[in-house]
Specification:
homodimer, alpha+beta, Arc Repressor Mutant, subunit A, three-stranded mixed beta sheet, binds manganese (II) ion, binds zinc ion, DNA-binding
Chain lengths: ~140, ~140
DNA sequence: GTCACGATTAGACTCAGTCCAGATCATGGT
DNA sequence: ACCATGATCTGGACTGAGTCTAATCGTGAC
């Protein structure tokens, strides 16, 4: 979890991403906290001290990271996408009251009884979202 | 599946919804096809022959139906919500190439190994989305 | 007929996300 | 050092889903 910027530079390179200042900061925002962040939140974090990254670059970069599979997206809120630095197969708790997202390790989770795929289809992944309320 | 408008009027009443002309037509669009439709698609279907329902009413009505649990929403495409006339517990195949959604009956599907909920939390539901590609 | 009240409406508005054309930056060759 | 080149970044215009508002409509009670 305690990622240094140097480690992130390596990780960007391993994913064929030219490690520019902005890209390093955006990766750092996501990886150093290990949280699920919206584009808005990333923009705010990266520009917290002094403005140094534009909205366009944040979106460009998040989409580049997605493409290069450095992060994944989580679609659970109809209003915004969450970006997830955890690319291991895993699932999510989603608190419908607070909007909080929490990871569920996929190891140990099994799904039985799914019907066979239509012919000529191949599974890309199985996402499980456990919607929870605060009681 | 072959819903008559009269049956839908009854169903609306059972859910405490005053069955107006527009509401009946919107319910008919969803229930007669049994498909997952976006608000845009509902608007187009309802106004196919002659314009009779506004965008505002389509959104008002879909949100009313949701509130009264006549339909549910499926969040899987970052660009739009799908509205689902099937309110039984069930899961979905999502074709990431075509955008198609298909139901998976929940009967027979079991999930094992989920961690216990954080204290004071209660499960609202478990959604499984099987993302598939066309091969 | 008039009143009240719920439903519908056009159109302005919001907000996430994209697009574009110009500026800036990094790199390598001379 | 100097320039050329391509990649990156940027402000700001733009798009499209969804919401809001204030005016109008429809219906039933009186
Ligand atoms: Mn800095
Ligand atoms: Mn009609
Ligand atoms: Zn996650
Ligand atoms: Zn469904």
């Amino acid at each position: 979890m305690p990622y240094t910027r140097d480690q992130l530079v390596e990780q960007l390179r391993r994913h064929d991403i030219n490690p520019t200042h902005q890209r390093i900061e955006i990766a750092f925002a996501l990886y150093s906290r290990g949280e699920h962040l919206s584009a808005d939140q990333v923009l705010a974090i990266v520009n917290d001290r002094h403005s140094e990254t534009s909205k366009a670059t944040v979106y460009n970069t998040l989409n580049l990271f997605l493409e290069k599979k450095l992060i994944r997206e989580v679609i659970v809120d109809p209003n915004k996408v969450f970006y997830d630095p955890n690319t291991e197969p895993h699932h999510h708790f989603y608190n419908v009251d607070t909007g909080e997202l929490a990871d569920i390790d996929a190891a140990g989770v099994e799904v039985h009884g799914l019907p066979p795929l239509p012919d000529g289809m191949v599974t890309e992944g199985v996402d499980i979202i456990v919607r929870v309320r605060s009681r």
